[in-house]
Amino acid sequence: MTKQQGKILVVDDDEIILLTAKMFLEQYFSEVNTLNIPKNIPDELDKQTYDVVLLDMNFRQGETSGKEGMKWLKEIISISPETSVLLMTAYGEVNLAVEAMKEGAADFIVKPWQNERLLATVQTALKLSDQQKQVRHLKSQQKILSSSADHQAGDIIGRSKAIKEAFTIINKVAKTDADVLILGENGTGKEVAARAIHRQSNRADQVFISVDLGSISETLFESELFGHKKGAFTDAKEDRTGRFEAASGGTLFLDEIGNLSLALQAKLLTVLQNRKIIKVGSNHPVEVDVRVICATNSNLYNMVSEGSFREDLLYRINTVECTIPPLRNRIEDIPLLTDHFLEIYCKKYNKSKLYLPEGVIKRLQKYSWPGNIRELQHAIERAVIMSDGNELQSRDFSFPGDSPKEEQVFDNYNLENLEAWAIKNAIKKHNGNISHAAKELGLSRGAMYRRMEKYGI
Questions:
Q1: How far, in Å, CA of 198 to CA of 204, rounded?
Q2: pTM of the model
Q3: Per-residue pLDDT tens over the stretch 108-135
Q4: What domains are defined for the chain?
């Protein structure tokens, strides 16, 4: 018998119920896992996305109110909205069933169940989960395809307040010929913003030339940017057109302008003021009609104060200033961005049916993304390459740049040493809040203080 694709999680404090459900459902579904401690549900859903969760309504001996089940129902829906939740109870009160359905439960199962009824209910819930995923995917694709200024400027995608502010500046400045300074951390998309300005400008049908000033040596700066004449120096075997002249009529993007030495800043300032270049080995100025967009991840204002960046050059290049926010400040844009990159890499690697569940997206939103959008893009590409099924899971992302968790090494595993270490780190984690630290350790405040006194903490 071919098993149906579907991930099922059964949560109950009764080991017999867990064993019985697992043995029966494993005959029909590709993966069935069990959990006997409800407080571990968030961690389990963080590890992987489930299609259906069978959840007991009462986890305490003699408890029949269903309050704990309702609490965990809401928690599951919050973490993974596309997961269908089936509530299980030995007490089939209609009012509990109605309340559970109002809170988002897919259905209600009374214990002890009939196997045929259980199978039919899980299969229906699985179909519902698939439909919810398809609806969300279609909605996200509609957002991606939207070309309105609220969601997109050129290839910049987003709807957060922070990125909309950048959109406003880009859309206003693009139609002018004003020089623009784009600020932002590495990987935020400064060149993408520069290209968006160019594409909306009156120079859109002309060239866009990008120069990474950080990669050009001081000795080759003038030759690269202004050009040279044949014989101007040893390796000048023919005339060379510089980047300014090549970009004439269009846009020149000077990235990492904060890396220039003061001497090179002076030479660049002269060209920007006069809009004329003099090739190395020539005395004849050449006029250039070029719009200049500069970018940097440096704080140029601090550099001016320190004397490492010319103030007159700063005010020459920043007629209009635009800051591209880091990804950690626009986490609401992550679903749009992930869908955008997923579409690109699914086509590239011929994996057209891949999908990012809501729970995984929430995990991505919790990560700080020190490498910003560039890091997110590479993470999605890697996950697509390494994926096995139709869904990308949290484990498919290695999150490079995450700080490794500190690992404590003990000379011996004496319980008192371990307890003292746990108490110290719990207090540190909760910034000195003894109540919160005690709660995490499962201690009362009194017991916590007694142990602190015992270990001299």
A1: 6
A2: 0.60
A3: 788 888 888 899 889 888 887 776 666 5
A4: 4-141 (3.40.50.2300), 152-325 (3.40.50.300), 328-396 (1.10.8.60), 415-454 (1.10.10)
